[in-house]
Amino acid sequence: MNAAQSTNGLSFELTNDQLQLQKLARDFAAKEIIPKAEHYDRTAEFPIDIIKKGQNIGLVNLNIPLDYGGPGATVLEECIVAEELAYGCSGISTAMSVNNLSSLPILLGGTNAQKDYWLGERMVGKGDLAAYCVTEPGAGSNVAGMQTRAEQVNGHYVINGSKIFISNVNFSSFYTVFAVTDPAKKHRGISCFVIERDTPGIKVSKHFDKLGQRAADTAEIVFENVEVPADNRIGEEGMGFMLAMSVFDHSRPGVAAGAVGVARRALEECVKYAKERETFGQPIWQHQAIGHKIADMAINTEAARLLVYQAAWAVDNNISNPKIVAAAKAFAADMAMQVTVDAVQVFGGYGYMREYPVEKLMRDIKVFQIYEGTSEIQRNIIVRELFR
Q1: The CATH number of domain 241-386 is 1.20.140.10
Q2: Given a cut of 60, is residue 4 above it in pLDDT?
Q3: What mean pLDDT value characterizes the chain?
């Protein structure tokens, strides 16, 4: 798959292949996600049946290259899919997309043999799920402050520590884990490893009970004297921090696209409701207070999508631009939060009821301002880039 090209330079049109991919994801959301979203939100069950169906039609493992049996999607194409799936349910979308994140350290820093095995044989061949383990109880936004330790002993590594708020961890067959190999070097002393789920010494907590995205499994993982072969290290010792930062550049556009999908869903629900609901003898969209609120939803959703596409285009074209990636993530998350709050207001008392869809959208979107780097951290990145 290739990003949209134009002989005249800038183009706002998707290619035929991208339009087909968009339709595939949109139809999947309509048929498989939306009818079941309320059930998974209520029960907090893991949507493994939906994930398996997504795997069968190529909507999981999107970023795995053709050489390893994957679709070989670009970051832009990941964003196209992320918007459509999150439109259906961002919790289920998150569960479906974690493999994209977990595979990135291997894609960006692994050897050909590691890619063949972990991506080709395991993720694509066996359909294994994986989890990405960075965040710790005392080190969230400050990745360099992690305490999980990996000590080299007799040709292997022994890992001790814990990670928290890890997605899909209870249902994953292996993990990409970041740990400190040389504390004296601070952020230059972090390395990355692939660890099998059934390795002795690994303990995983029960699924956390969350405000939103309840279909997405989130839990804590503890490593107690976990022995990992040296061959399971991704890249050289000490390159883990830079690898994690590169992962975020590749993954944040897709997260931002998910926020756009939630905002678009809220907007469309509001348009539909505002046509049907009448007050003072007319549909509520004809009241300027409501009509302008919905217009602002449309403006901000369109603007966020353009930022997301620009960020994805930069990554696909090997242009290092942390500022635009951070801007896309922060703007999309913040605007979608506001859109869903406004959507509840448009629905009035009905918006507060669980039988209407917008209260779930508001609960689900909050985490977009937190995970994959908070909105505050994104602004720190933008300030850093502006004042270099």
Answers
A1: yes
A2: no
A3: 96
Q: Residue 103 — very low, low, confident or very high, per pLDDT cuts 50/70/90?
A: very high
- pTM of the model as a whole: 0.95
Provide the token pair at 297: 């939803």
d(C-alpha 112, C-alpha 92), whole Å: 31
Half-sphere exposure of 254 (CA within 13 A, CB side): 27
Distance CA 110, CA 108 (A): 6
Give the lowest-confidence range in 27-36, 136-145, 162-171, 299-308. Answer: 136-145
Cα 160 to Cα 151: distance, rounded to the nearest angstrom: 9
Superfamily of domain 130-238: Butyryl-CoA Dehydrogenase, subunit A, domain 2 (2.40.110.10)
For the chain, the structural domain boundaries read: 16-125, 130-238, 241-386
Give 174's Cβ-side CA count (13 Å radius).
19
Q: Which amino acids are annotated catalytic? A: 372
Q: What is the pLDDT of residues 17-33, one digit of tens each?
A: 999 999 999 999 999 99
pLDDT attached to residue 8: 57
> What is the CATH number assigned to the segment(s) 16-125?
1.10.540.10
